[in-house]
Amino acid sequence: MTQRQYLVAGNWKMNGSLEANRTLVSGILAGLGQCAGVEVLVCPPAPYLAQVRELVEGSRIRLGGQNLADQQKAGAFTGEVHGAMLRELGCQYVLVGHSERRSLYGETDAVVAAKFKVAQALGLVPVLCLGETLDERDSNRTEAVLARQLGAVVEAAGIAAFAAGRAVIAYEPVWAIGTGRTASAEQAQSAHAYLRGQLAERDATIAGSTRILYGGSVKPDNAQELFAGADVDGGLIGGASLKCGDFLAICAGAQSQLK
Ligand code: 13P
Prior knowledge:
The chain is of the alpha/beta class and 259 residues long. It has 11 helices and 8 strands. An 8-stranded parallel β-barrel has the order 1-2-3-4-5-6-7-8, surrounded by 6 helices. Strand 2, helix 2 (49-56) and strand 3 form a beta-alpha-beta unit. It is globular and about 45 Å long. 1,3-dihydroxyacetonephosphate (13P) binds next to strand 8.
């Protein structure tokens, strides 16, 4: 028996428009009843946060940012978004260290750790994304990579930063993102158990309460099986989160697994 509530998060990435967002959110709102007991989060591109905030107002859909600046204070950082701005626009969560940020924008473990700390300092719950590349998996380095990526944040922020819902982890194997190639339920569960074990080595209570999401080509037809894993506490959904029916079906997949 676990106390961890399922969380299904839609990472819209760099997609959407005023009109598309309106249609998508109204569809999700209409179907929320299918996923009672599951926490539902959407992470639109920053320019649409104000719009989506209004659309979800009064509902139980939560709002998150996709990225934030690694700066404690606002100032001369052209093009960056400060965590306090995300808070002001109604965000409770923010993705940190998504593999696209790491691979396309050069975010190192140190930058990710800095963003994680800034997010918490500004009252946001960071969703720490990590995962191995195909090359790393094929050369049996998955666990070493996960230990390094998680360890960098735990060393910088302290294990207490993961206590009592203050942070979420998202395991996203890079080879499964946007490829249609999903980790098997066994591969996901094994990585999640490993990550939880890494936390447990520092603090068993914190390990037991930290939610670990799976991300990487989650679809309606594989969600239920993935979410059945004992250490899988929901999903971080890319492509399928842009389709209302698919996103709701994935949320319902989590609902059907309520442990
Ligand atoms: P896909 O669901 O499109 O594979 O994307 C996963 C992801 O990167 C979510 O953050």
